[in-house]
Design brief:
Structural class: alpha/beta
Number of strands: 8
CATH superfamily of the largest domain: Histidine kinase-like ATPase, C-terminal domain
Number of domains: 2
Helix content: 25-40%
Number of helices: 11
Shape: globular
Strand content: 15-25%
Radius of gyration: 20 Å
Order of helices and strands: EHEHEHHEHHEEHHHEEHH
């Protein structure tokens, strides 16, 4: 029997990823032909972080691809609201099919943020370049850039490699947004997909050594060095977690009903797929040697990347 449900996402009641996932519980396990009327309340004051808006987009796009009919509407709408203008600028309404006339002039966002974007094997390198540009021009120290250059490339590749049960590079797709917040001296990056999730990715590959892990065990162990389903070295999430501890930022992974938040396993509202969230402090340096050791080739790789893409960074802006 087909269902029709109504869901409200009220940003006056949401202040975290967990809050948002809880508000979207009714959008899980819908079938082809089901209908969703999704009301979004952006009224009020205060910043709505872009990573929250991206998660709504990712969930809605997943529903549409699965044959669920979704109608998105704004309630308590105020066209002059800073929240509305910000959501519009990062292409939130465009993805949801809500047509609004923007009452502002768009400025060049390069080096400051990336709008909500879907990535796949055809545009992944362009997305990677744009993230690195934000990191480079906003004061992240070069040692930490060396680590981030490796880690972010690995996380993006994980989506293309592991999000799909096909276990084929490029079969998976994801969403990303990144932004520098100068007052807080931090960069927030979220990379999310609505694929099979960490547990299935680790346990269902025929060559995996981790077929017997429970969901909680899979999420908990995914940041251990060497934990992989055989389609990689199991190094990317480990290096990311190590770096974020030393940076005193945040690194959160959501998959299924489990979340790893700064290394602590937490039961959370369910997410079908995988979310990687990083909050990076731009004024707390991390030495790449602490992560990779003295004899790493990561620094040379980063220097080659920076020179090939950006030349003399001091003359860019």
């Amino acid at each position: 029997m087909l269902r029709e449900i109504a869901t409200l996402i009220d940003f006056n009641c949401i202040s975290s990823h967990d809050d948002l996932l809880a508000s979207m519980i009714s959008l899980i396990d819908l079938k082809v032909g089901d209908r969703v009327n999704l009301d979004i309340d952006l009224s009020g004051s205060g910043l709505i972080y872009p990573d929250l808006l991206l998660l709504i987009v990712a969930r809605v796009e997943c529903l549409k691809k699965n044959g669920v009919k979704v109608n998105c509407s704004l309630i308590n709408f105020d066209a002059t609201s800073n929240r509305v203008n910000y959501a519009s600028r990062i292409n939130f309404f465009e993805f949801l099919g809500i047509k609004l006339e923007e009452g502002f002039k768009r400025r060049d966002r390069q080096g400051r943020f990336i709008e909500i974007s879907e990535f796949n094997e055809t545009n992944i390198y362009q997305v990677f370049q744009e993230i690195m540009r934000i990191l480079i021009v906003n004061g992240v120290n070069e040692d930490m850039l060396t680590v981030l250059h490796f880690c972010l490339n690995e996380i993006l590749d994980n989506t293309l490699n592991h999000a799909s049960p096909d276990f084929r590079y490029g079969a998976g797709t994801g969403f990303i947004i990144a932004q520098f917040f100068p007052t807080a001296r931090e960069i927030r990056i979220i990379i999310a997909d609505t694929g099979q999730g960490i547990h299935a990715a680790l346990t269902r590959h025929p060559k995996s050594r981790f077929k017997d892990l429970s969901e909680q065990e899979a999420v908990s162990r995914c940041i251990e060095r060497g934990v992989t389903n055989s389609l990689g070295l199991g190094f990317g999430l480990w290096a990311t977690s190590q770096m974020m501890v030393k940076n005193q930022g945040d690194f959160k992974i959501y998959s299924g009903s489990s979340s790893l938040q700064n290394g602590k396993l937490v039961k959370t509202p369910s997410w079908n797929g995988t979310i990687n969230y990083l909050r990076i402090n731009t004024d707390i340096p991390v030495n790449h040697i602490e992560i990779f050791g003295e004899k790493s080739n990561q620094l040379d790789m980063f220097q080659e990347f920076k020179e090939s893409q950006f030349g003399n960074i001091e003359n860019l802006w």
